[in-house]
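Late entry, zinc ion complex.
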Amino acid sequence: MQRFYCNCGQEVYFADTHCVACGKELGFDPSKRHLYCGRRDGRVFIAELPNGAEKRFKVCDNHHEPVRCNWLLALDDPHHQCISCRTTHIIPDQNQPKNPLRWRRLEEAKRRLFDTLISLGLDTRGAPDIINGLRFNFLEDQRTNPNVDLEFVLTGHSHGLITLNAAEADEGFLHAMKEQMNEPYRSLLGHFRHEVGHYYWERLLKSESLVQFRRVFGDERFDYGQALRSYYQYGPQRNWQVSFISAYASSHPFEDWAETWAHYLHITDTLETARMYGLTDYVQARHDFELWVKEWLKVVKVMNALNRSMGLADPYPFVLSPIVMSKLRFIDDLIDSQARI
Ligand SMILES: [Zn+2]
Ligand SMILES: [Zn+2]
Ligand SMILES: [Zn+2]
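Prediction complete; structure with ligand written out below:
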């Protein structure tokens, strides 16, 4: 994540709608990954550039409560919602007291996801071969709302449609799931990054890269349902740490890919943040995987040490074994060759 400053000099943050120092409105242009300060005139955001010039945008339809989306659209864009908000198709019942805040958190995490995808040059707008492209349903189940039909909502992906249990946006629910699933690093953003990995698998893997994929991750044609049943019944593969980034990654090559993909996005975003705060000079570039890993391991040391000083758990309890590195390298090569054109 980048750092942003208002024209008055105050540091402002990615999801901010106003500068706390001067009160100016803030709007984020995802195409430039830039947070502007300015003013709003109805549906138009007038960005005030430091040189005194102005630039006009449309505000996202979700700029109001509860989402408070600060993303902008080009004036001639036919859409009313920003590139992220318009991928949401179902939201949880806004008459239930907790749901407005859940929706805001879900959208904020999604915008963070989109920002990283954009930084990597990945297309978020869908593809003709996948029905309607990337889209999201945020659903509730009877564990948190007895009035809904669904007994159990599982987070998952199907041909571009990502379903998330809206309750994952609750700290309490997330904490309970962390314990239950033994996933101390579970997070809303992590869910988005994992599920979108399944989507990009469908988009980026073509016949030649599929052969290579199977060499690195295994054969994805292996019975998926059976693999997951076996994982939940008998647990992860023994010594999974040697070959997989997480226990769950050992359940099936598809899940291994999505877990490793999520990890790639975690590293990409966190390394950019680390650079912005002076922890490294490294700028992610094409074909520099070794340097990318080297810089990441330096940043991890600092990150974990800072948390230990605060009496908190390591934010990065992962081990990058040689096999896991080869999987990350495969993803890096694929993104380099297909996305950053
Ligand atoms: Zn300001
Ligand atoms: Zn929006
Ligand atoms: Zn998955």
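Residues 84-204 form one domain. Will revisit in the morning.
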